[in-house]
Amino acid sequence: MRFYLGYGSAVAIVMFLICLGFSLAYQRLAPQQDYLGGI
Amino acid sequence: MQIASTGRHSLERPQETRPSSRFQDRLIIALFLLPSISLFLVFVVYPIFQSIYYSLFNWKGLGPAVDFIALDNYKRILTDRVFMLALRNNVIIVALSLLLQLPLSLVLAVMVGRDLPGRAFFRSIFFMPYVFSEVIVAIMWLLPSIPTRSRLHQCSSGPPPRSRAARLARRSKYRLMCIFVVLSWKYFGFHMLLYLTGLQNIPSEVEEAARIDGANRYQLLTQITIPCSAAPFVPRSICPS
């Protein structure tokens, strides 16, 4: 059985970058609110 | 007089901390953070950089990585039909979770959050699927697709009958929907619990004031309940399932 771990690592990096992009975009775009401050 | 002037001085200007005590504070903070930061570096940051390194090689997992191929693995990803299909399926699952699973959880949270008889029972029932492990859930939902082999049928020679759900799940266009149904069934109780926590933090005075002002149930839900319990919406929307 052959394992393509190099290719798997590349897939992992791409998925990590997608998640990082979403997180950074959310932090930039979401309004900065103090949710714990209550109403 | 001396006391009064000292008190006024302390109100006007906060006492400056000495550099040595500030250093001590920072040292204590660093010492407390050291275990978690070292674990984070070893188990999160280091594997990320290791993955970046191995992604530049045609490495089979055995022996050292010597076959350097630069960005060929990344070029292969762009033309990989399976990867693109998996990415598309993930986007669909996330979109469906945001559009269907979270609103359903909110509705259930509002329902079981009211002071009705048997609400503790229903809370437990709705939360129960989340307690099961993924393997148990998979086996439970696989049961309808397993051929029904009754003793009578084992004596016969024909193919085992399949349930309607199993036939539906075998069609390719319904497979993703079947997975989404299972995911929703497993996780909606957990989301419901988080929403319920947010709903219980709403002060009853606010709802009472709205009722006195003439707000109906729908207005209460849209104007008071949902905005006031906004805190769990954000993390739930980021990681829906």
Account of the 3D structure:
The complex is a heterodimer of chains A (39) and B (241). The model of chain A has no long low-confidence stretch (mean pLDDT 79). Chain A has one domain (1-28). By secondary structure, chain A is mainly α. Chain A has one helix at residues 5-29. Chain A is 64% helix and 0% strand. Chain B is an all-alpha fold and 241 residues long. Chain B has two domains: 18-75, no CATH class; 81-238, Orthogonal Bundle (MetI-like fold). Chain B is 73% helix and 0% strand. Chain B contains twelve helices and no strands. Chain B has helices at residues 2-12, 19-54, 72-78, 81-113, 119-131, 134-142, 151-155, 164-170, 172-200, 204-212, 217-228, 233-238. Chain B is flat and about 75 Å long.
Helix and strand topology:
The complex is a heterodimer of chains A (39) and B (241).
Chain A lengths: L4 H25 L10
Chain B lengths: L1 H11 L6 H36 L17 H7 L2 H33 L5 H13 L2 H9 L8 H5 L8 H7 L1 H29 L3 H9 L4 H12 L4 H6 L3
In brief, what are we looking at here?
The complex is a heterodimer of chains A (39) and B (241). Chain A is mostly helical and 39 residues long. Chain A is built from 1 helix and no strands.
Question: Can you give the mean pLDDT of chain B?
Answer: 79
Label the structural class of chain A. mainly alpha
Largest sheet of chain B: none
Calculate the terminal CA-CA distance of chain A, rounded to whole Å. 59 Å
Series of H and E elements of chain B: HHHHHHHHHHHH
- In helices, the fraction of residues of chain A equals 55-70%
Order of helices and strands of chain A: H
Q: How many strand segments of chain B?
A: 0
- Our estimate of the beta-strand percent of chain A is under 5%
The number of helical segments of chain A is: 1
- Helix share, percent of chain B: over 70%
Strand percent estimate of chain B: under 5%
Structural class of chain B: mainly alpha
As residue ranges, the low-confidence spans of chain A are none
When the domains of chain A are counted, the total is 1
Structurally, the number of domains of chain B stands at 2
* Tally of alpha and pi helices of chain B: 12
Distance between the termini of chain B: 66 Å
Radius of gyration of chain A: 18 Å
Instruction: Provide the gyration radius of chain B in Å.
Output: 29 Å
